[in-house]
Amino acid sequence: MKRVEGYSEKYDEGLRVATVEHGDQTRKGSGLPYVIHPVHVSVILLRHGFSQEAAIAGLLHDVVEDQGYRLSEIEARFGARVAEMVAVLSERKTDTDGVKRPWELRKQEALQQLRSASRETVAVKCADTLHNARSFVHDLRQQGLDVWQHFNRGPQLQLTYYNQVVELARERLGAHALVTELAQAVSELASVIDDTGTT
Question: What are the boundaries of each domain within the chain?
C-alpha cells in the first residue's frame, strides 16, 4: 500500500475547523475533548492509505451533524468530494419541527445512505466506528455500567448497529485491512459487554 503524506495546508485547515467547531464539546463516555475523535478517525484513514480528501472528511465528519456547520462552506473550502462524504455521514437528528428523531431510524437511514456511497465514504464510517468501539471498550473497563447512562441506547442496540456497519463494510470494502481491524474491535467490544453486563 502506498504511503499517504499526512500533512498539507488543506489538512491543517480541516484540523483547525474541527478544533474550533467542536470547541468545548466533550466525548459522552470519557468527558475528553471531542476533537480527539475526528483526529483519531483521520489518522486511522491515513494509516490505511486512504486519500487526503477522506482524511479531511474524517476530521469534519461531525461538524455538520453536531455543530450546524454548512456543507456549502465545506465544499467551498475543501472541495466537492469532501463535502459529499460529510453529507452522507451527517445524520438528520431533528425533524422539520425541531423534534428529536428516533435513534433507530437515524441509524437505519445512515446505513442505507452508505450502501450507495463511495468506497472512501464507507472507509470514513469504518474509521469512525472503529474509534468509537475502541473508546467504548476503554470506557467500559474504566467505568463499568455507568458508561451507558451517557448514551441514547444501551449496549445491545449499540452492538447490533456496530455489527451492521461491519457487515456493510465487508460488502463494500471486502477484505480490506481496515474492515478486519473494525471487526476485531467490535468483537472485543462484544466480549467486554458480556464481561460487564447490560443492566
Answer: 9-196
C-alpha cell at 29: 463516555
User: What CATH code would you report for 9-196?
Assistant: 1.10.3210.10
Listing DSSP states for the chain in one string gives --------HHHHHHHHHHHHHHTT-B-TTT--BTTHHHHHHHHHHHHTT--HHHHHHHHHTTHHHHH---HHHHHHHH-HHHHHHHHHH----B-TTSPBPPHHHHHHHHHHHHHTS-HHHHHHHHHHHHHHHHHHHHHHHHHGGGGGGGSSS-HHHHHHHHHHHHHHHHHHHTT-HHHHHHHHHHHHHHHHHHHH---
Which cell is 63 given? 461538524
Q: What is the pLDDT of residues 127-157, one digit of tens each?
A: 999 999 999 999 888 888 787 777 777 788 8
pLDDT digits (tens, 9 = 90+) for 42-76: 999 999 999 999 999 999 999 999 999 999 999 99
